[in-house]
Amino acid sequence: MLPILPKIDTSLQETVPQLPKRRVKAPQKQKKSTESSTKTIAPFLPKLFLIIGVVLIFSQIIPLALSVYNGYSLSANSSTFLPVSESFIQKLTNVTYIDPGAAWFEAVVAQNHAPQIDLNYSKTMKISIDNANISRVNLAANIPGNNPAIYDEALKHGVAHLKGTSVPGDPGLSVIYGHSGVAGFFTGRGSPQIIFSRLDTVSIGDTMSIDRDGKELRYVVSGKKIVEPQDLTFMSEQTDKERAILLTCWPLGIGTKRLIIIADRLQ
To answer: What is the widest separation between alpha-carbon atoms in the chain?
Structure first.
């Protein structure tokens, strides 16, 4: 005897929705398309690099050739052309400083009361100030302050001892002066002509030395001040030591005031 099977409701099967089938791209086909695009571009790469190289080369060669041609042309015509003014060139290549003038130096000497001054000493000395990066700079002796032509020439090569004050190493007060100023952009940054621009870095307690006749004279800085041009009280301070006073105009390139460094001799 056969078993009795349950009846199946076919109406439920008809209502079940059928999901759409997704097409999956074969990875092999995508790889083939990438390879085909690379093969298409590859033959053009050498040509592209060649074109870029030629453009770069000619971008340098053409201006160079034109400059050479213009140079020969100027030489043949014996003419020159400056695209900027001469004053602008001077600012780039020259130093700018303020000259305090003969009257100011004469006033400084008038305040000196040293009992004995050697006006005939003429040997060149050397001055060094470590903290100002000044090393064995020329120190000309007995340079008069009443003749700008003489002291300007001496200051082109270093600094100067003011005639009418004691020579460093002798009893009394020695005055040493030099220019401070603004260096040109291309030249003059290491120029001895404005070597005293570095005095601003000197502090009380720093040491300096002056080489005279092969003997080293040692000093210690005891004072530093910025004064008005008419203020010469630093010259009248009494001391039983040998003293050197360094003078320069301040601020750089303006010179409305004076920077004073006072240094006493170490025995």
So the answer is: 157
Burial per residue of 185-220, b for 16 or more beta-carbon CB atoms within 10 angstroms, e otherwise: eeebeebbbbbbbbbbebeeebebbbbbeeeebebe
Positive/negative CA dihedral, 105, 106, 107, 111: positive
Residue 103 lies in a domain: yes
pTM for this one? Answer: 0.66
Query: Measured in Å, how far apart are the chain's first and last C-alpha atoms?
Result: 142
In angstroms, rounded to a whole number, what is the distance separating the alpha carbons of residues 176 and 31?
Answer: 87
Domain count within the chain: 2
Banded pLDDT at 12 (limits 50, 70, 90):
very low
Percent of the chain beyond pLDDT 70? Answer: 70
> Residue with structure tokens 């790469």?
45
For residue 108, what are the contacts with CB-CB under 8 A and spacing of at least 6? 145, 162, 165, 175, 232, 235, 247
- Do residue 120 and residue 210 come from a single domain? yes
In this structure, are 131 and 57 located in the same domain?
no
- The whole domain housing 47 covers 42-77
149: in domain: yes
Mean pLDDT along residues 121-147: 95
Tell me the pLDDT of the chain averaged across its residues: 81
What would the pLDDT profile of 69-87 be if each residue is shown by its tens digit? 655 554 555 444 456 666 6
Q: Are residues 251 and 153 in the same domain?
A: yes
Tokens 């050197």 locate to: 244
